[in-house]
Amino acid sequence: MENLRYPIGRFTAPEHYNHQTVRSAIEEIKSLPHRFEKMARSLSDVQLEEKYRPEGWTARQVIHHVADSHVNAYIRFKWTLTEEKPRIKAYNEAAWASLSDSRLGAIDPPLSFLHAIHGRWVQLLDLMDESDFAKQYQHPDNDQYFPLWVVCSLYAWHGNHHLAHLELIKQSGTW
């Protein structure tokens, strides 16, 4: 079950700031909308309603979730760049994925939105300097502080993590 839940493995945060690691993460974030849309559009209507694992989300819910999650990430970056160690707003991912727009909505809007938000986000990331990446936010779930260079790697992983879920559905159709 672990392989279905984490098909590319669990996220491992980099231990130290490394410019090349951050640049690689930005490139992953930049390329995700195209790769994600290509995979999402390759799924049939039936596959969009399939889950990548028992008790997991459907492909449709994953597509909506990534757009929801990444807009939250973008906003968190903006807060962190404009406030001193802000305590970010968490959201209930499972509850959002259970809303009717995520369960039943067309995939065109979240895919278009993903392109738009990533365009804005990558523009921001490309214009940040090393001192900006050292800025931190506090997550309310565990009160831990996260520097933006770690968050960059987290969201590069996050996009690929959910892309792998769609690939599982595409390859097998069922678990």
CATH superfamily name? dinb family like domain
List unreliable stretches of 5+ residues. none
Strand content: under 5%
Following the backbone from N to C, one meets helices and strands in this order, namely HHHHHHHHEEH
Q: Which CATH class? A: Mainly Alpha
Q: The CATH topology, please?
A: Four Helix Bundle (Hemerythrin (Met), subunit A)
The largest β sheet comes out as: 2 strands, antiparallel
Radius of gyration: 16 Å
Strand order of the largest sheet: 1-2
Basic shape: globular
CATH architectural arrangement = Up-down Bundle
Sheet/helix structural class = mainly alpha
Q: What's the overall average pLDDT, rounded? A: 96
Helix count, per DSSP? 9
* Terminal-residue CA separation: 10 Å
- Number of separate strands: 2
The total tally of domains equals 1
What oligomeric state do the depicted chains represent? single chain
Percent in helix: 55-70%
Looking at this protein, list some descriptive labels:
single chain, 175 residues, Four Helix Bundle (Hemerythrin (Met), subunit A), 9 helices, 2 strands
Polypeptide structure, described:
With 175 residues, the protein is mainly α. It has one domain (28-172): Four Helix Bundle (Hemerythrin (Met), subunit A) (Up-down Bundle). The protein has helices at residues 2-5, 19-42, 45-48, 59-82, 93-98, 100-104, 108-127, 130-133, 148-172; strands spanning 136-138, 145-147. The chain has a two-stranded antiparallel sheet. Helix 2 (19-42) runs parallel beside helix 9, helix 4 (59-82) runs parallel beside helix 7 and helix 4 runs antiparallel to helix 9 (148-172). The radius of gyration is 16 Å and the shape is globular.
